[in-house]
Design goal:
The protein is an alpha/beta fold. It has 11 helices and 20 strands. It has a 7-stranded mixed beta sheet with strand order 5-4-3-6-7-9-8, sandwiched between helices. The protein has a 7-stranded mixed beta sheet with strand order 14-13-12-15-18-20-19, sandwiched between helices. The protein has a two-stranded antiparallel ribbon with strand order 1-2. Strand 16 and strand 17 (about 325-330) form a beta hairpin. Helix 5 packs parallel to helix 6. The structure holds S-adenosyl-L-homocysteine (SAH). S-adenosyl-L-homocysteine binds near residues 80, 231, 278 and 321.
């Protein structure tokens, strides 16, 4: 049976401490709220919700829209979450929804901010998230930040205290720690976040790393998949492909990250369309295409949400995600496969790399045929034809 994309794209009403909210597959924590967020909401007393301008950076379907803040901005990097926020928009009369990381927000533009730094995205990203949050707040503005003690919370709290000037630990439960960070900058703080423009931020080492992979000079924003290096699976996929055979073909790269697969295919003369759920991956991929003067269309897209339903390609490539936090989730990879099938020409092929242990073969049953192209001690490359 082909997994249906209709299922993947379905919005579900889920319960939250602030009322019911639309969420969907692909949103972190689905079919529940992320534990960090549940904890945050259980701790915040009503006055904390009465902000003038709340920025919700939790990437959780726009739950801030259910708060009593006078105005709410839902900013985030996940397209799946932002789509839900659009669906939840009617819950607040003064709402702004946009793709942005914390450091891409207007400086001094809000008085309250919620942030769940993605410690699964590495130290550089958490630092950047915190620094951007400090910059986005007005003086005396407050950021509520939840981190876990097993994911470096205490270390990050030290950094946060330096960036904001004041830190209070206001809740602890099951390893989760809720900090109230108040922006109290004075001359003693060597890092004064207001002095950075957005471009400066991107140029900071911790924001956009420059590195070389497969002979190409590349950049990737902090926290983008495999930023700063070449993923072993992606490398294995590229060495398994007859890249020259893609010349002149239209190719779709699902989950492009900073663009490794897309760039190599475009260099070989393919017309490449790339998409990713992560806004920072999209920006990184666009920057890399521009740097190498390659014409790649890059969409910020929740699986195929940015494509026309009947748009088709000669080939599809992907290195599907299988981790979302610590969970192994198959919803998104199966949606990648279903999207590949939907957007392939009849006779076209999809090639993926996966951890050897992952049971993708079962999901290829409805295809015209499939085979294993290569196998290593860690990975396998599968190809299937429509
Ligand atoms: N192709 C890149 C990245 C592979 S990792 C490379 O080879 O380096 C998988 C990518 O899928 C990540 O960049 C992740 O952000 C993206 N992704 C995860 N969920 C997604 C979704 N729902 N829609 C589109 N992309 C998604």
């Amino acid at each position: 049976m082909m997994p249906t994309l209709a299922n993947y794209h379905h919005y579900h009403s889920i319960a939250s401490p602030l009322g019911s909210l639309y969420s969907k597959q692909g949103v972190k924590g689905f079919p529940r709220l992320q534990p960090a967020l549940t904890f945050l909401l259980s701790q915040l007393k009503t006055p904390s919700l009465q902000a003038e301008q709340l920025v919700d950076l939790s990437d959780s379907g726009g739950i801030g829209l259910l708060s009593s803040a006078q105005a709410v901005t839902v900013a985030g990097t996940s397209r799946a979450s932002l789509r839900c926020a659009e669906k939840n928009r009617s819950q607040h009369e003064n709402a702004t929804i946009k793709a942005a990381a914390s450091w891409q927000l207007e400086p001094a533009s809000c008085d309250v901010l919620w942030l769940l730094p993605g410690s699964d995205k590495g130290t550089a990203r958490v630092r950047a998230d915190l620094q951007g949050a400090a910059r986005a707040l007005q003086k005396d503005g407050v950021a509520y930040v939840v981190m876990h003690k097993d994911q470096g919370a205490k270390r990050y709290e030290k950094i946060a205290k330096e960036l904001f000037g004041m830190l209070e630990l206001i809740g602890k439960e099951a390893g989760w720690r809720l900090c109230k960070l108040t922006k109290r900058l004075d001359d003693h703080h060597s890092l004064s976040p207001e002095t950075f423009t957005a471009q400066d931020f991107m140029a900071q080492d911790f924001m956009a790393q420059t590195f070389v992979a497969r002979g190409l000079e590349l950049q990737a924003a902090a926290g983008v998949f495999a930023a700063g290096k070449l993923d072993k699976g992606s490398d294995f996929l590229l060495t398994s492909l007859d890249i020259a055979s893609y010349q002149g073909k239209s190719v779709l790269d699902i989950g492009c990250g900073y663009g490794m697969l897309s760039l190599e295919l475009a260099r070989a003369g393919a017309q490449v369309t790339a998409l990713d759920d992560d806004w920072l991956a999209v920006e990184s991929c666009r920057a890399n295409a521009a740097r190498h003067q390659l014409d790649i269309r890059v969409h910020h897209s929740d699986v195929n949400s940015a494509l026309d339903a009947n748009e088709t390609f000669d080939a599809v490539v992907m290195n599907p995600p299988f981790h979302l936090g610590k969970q192994v989730l198959f919803d998104v990879p199966l949606a990648f496969l279903a999207a590949a099938y939907q957007h392939l020409e009849v006779g076209g092929h999809m090639t993926l790399v996966a951890n050897r242990a992952l049971p993708y073969e079962a999901a290829l049953a409805g295809w015209a045929k499939w085979c294993e192209l290569e196998r290593s001690s860690a990975f396998k490359v599968l190809r299937a034809w429509r």
